[in-house]
Write a structure and sequence with these properties.
It contains nine helices and eleven strands. By secondary structure, the chain is α+β, with helices and mostly antiparallel strands. It folds into two domains: 155 residues, no CATH class; 223 residues, PPM-type phosphatase domain (Phosphatase 2c, domain 1, 4-Layer Sandwich), CATH 3.60.40.10. Strand 5 and strand 6 form a beta hairpin. Helix 1 runs antiparallel to helix 4, helix 2 runs antiparallel to helix 3 and helix 5 packs across helix 6. The longest helix has 55 residues. The N terminus is likely disordered.
Length: 400
């Protein structure tokens, strides 16, 4: 997109200036003749010539203003705004008035027909008003055209940004695994991510490991919009590449060091990462994220709390690791703070307790159904209120 701003007083073509000079000079001359009580055809023609001389001065003012003065009030890249518009308008009208008086003085001392015109206040005043009106209309039309072009460029730029954001959202969704993956022999996985804007900073992922196990992660990048989405895509790829099948804590430690070196402490990522083996052994590690839950088929709920700094905050951070056993029908549920911090109409947060209650009410559902139940409960709690954060849920069910 061309970022060059449209400025008032844009230079006109010679043909345009010629038409302005011819039409307005002739009409101005007719006015001078009319108020000078000269109503013959010859007088009108002579005064039309005088009007052309007068308009020559005015066109000179316009050309001078466009060439030398306008760039000082509106430098390249600066749109017409506020005090600059007022100052330029006053300057232009004053210079136009002075040019008009100078033209009258020339006419008064050169053409026999117009000698003594300076002593006719009515002719001078009326013509001066006509010229100033013309100058004002010239400025108004110039500002209107400049404003139109600026708005048009802004609308085009916003449309382009909107299109790019839609494409970015499509790419981001393509990077996430499918919402439901149940074709594996030991696992069923279901997840979703609903960004608060067109693109978000949350992501979830699952991937098969060489030993037949499955790795999974849900993360939340600090911030929103495009910067968070870019960092989320980078972190997602890093976790896949750095994954150590038996040591999720080591995986997080590697990713943390890489992010800290590249982003500094200004950008960080909270993440919950787990590795589930075919025999039901579950190892998890938490990097500043919300606790995950194990929902057992019996209805028991186990909260997986663990301490750990967000990824990217400190390069030498270390992470704890927990290990537990799952049996067929057990589910691991991980979600972002878009769940717990969702607000109701009266400003109440959904919270961990409500999330836990939703899980407890459906101990034997599938991964897909449990994920949908939690998302539906959060959205129903918000009752149409626009989300302030991305909402992401991941459910991994161990099939045994």
């Amino acid at each position: 997109m061309n970022n060059r701003a449209v400025r008032p007083g844009a230079p006109r073509s010679l043909g345009h200036l010629f038409l302005i000079w011819l039409i307005n000079g002739t009409l101005g001359g007719f006015l001078i003749a009319f108020f000078h009580n000269e109503h013959t055809l010859k007088a009108y023609l002579n005064y039309a010539f005088a009007g052309l001389v007068l308009m020559f001065f005015i066109i000179g003012v316009i050309a001078f203003a466009n060439r030398f003065v306008r760039p000082r009030f509106f430098p390249q890249g600066i749109t017409f705004r506020g005090s600059a518009v007022i100052a330029y308008t006053i300057w232009f009208l004053v210079l136009t008035a002075l040019a008009t008086l100078a033209a009258f003085w020339v006419l008064d001392h050169t053409l026999v027909l117009t000698r003594g015109i300076m002593s006719n206040p009515q002719a001078v005043g009326t013509t001066l008003m006509y010229v100033l009106l013309f100058a004002a209309l010239n400025l108004i039309s110039t500002y209107a055209v400049a404003f139109y072009h600026e708005v048009h460029q802004r609308v085009r730029a916003e449309a382009k940004v909107e299109q790019e954001m839609r494409l970015a959202a499509e790419v981001q969704q393509a990077l996430l695994p499918s919402a439901s993956a149940s074709g594996r022999s030991h696992y069923a996985v279901s997840g979703t991510s609903v960004p608060s804007r067109s693109i978000g900073g949350d992501f979830f992922d699952d991937f098969e490991l060489a030993d037949g196990g499955i790795g999974f992660v849900l993360a939340d990048v600090a911030g929103k919009g495009a910067p968070a989405a870019l960092l989320a895509a980078a972190a997602q790829g890093m976790i896949r590449m750095a994954c150590v099948p038996d040591r999720p804590s080591t995986t997080l430690q590697r990713v943390n060091a890489a992010l800290a070196r590249r982003t500094g402490s200004s950008r960080f990522v909270t993440a919950f990462h787990g590795v589930l083996s075919p025999d039901g052994r579950l190892r998890t590690s938490n990097a500043g994220h919300l606790p995950a839950f194990i929902l057992r088929g019996s209805g028991e709920i186990v909260r997986l709390d663990a301490d750990g700094l967000p990824l990217g905050a400190f390069e030498d951070a270390t992470y704890e690791e927990r290990e537990t056993r799952l049996v067929a029908g057990d589910k691991i549920v991980v979600f972002s703070d878009g769940v717990t911090e969702a607000l109701s109409a009266d400003g109440q947060q959904f919270g961990l307790e409500k999330a836990e209650a939703v899980l407890a009410a459906a101990p034997r559902t599938t991964a897909v159904d449990l994920m949908a139940r939690l998302v539906t409960a959060v959205q129903g709690f918000a009752n149409g209120r626009a989300p302030e954060d991305d909402l992401t849920v991941l459910v991994v069910r161990y099939e045994g």
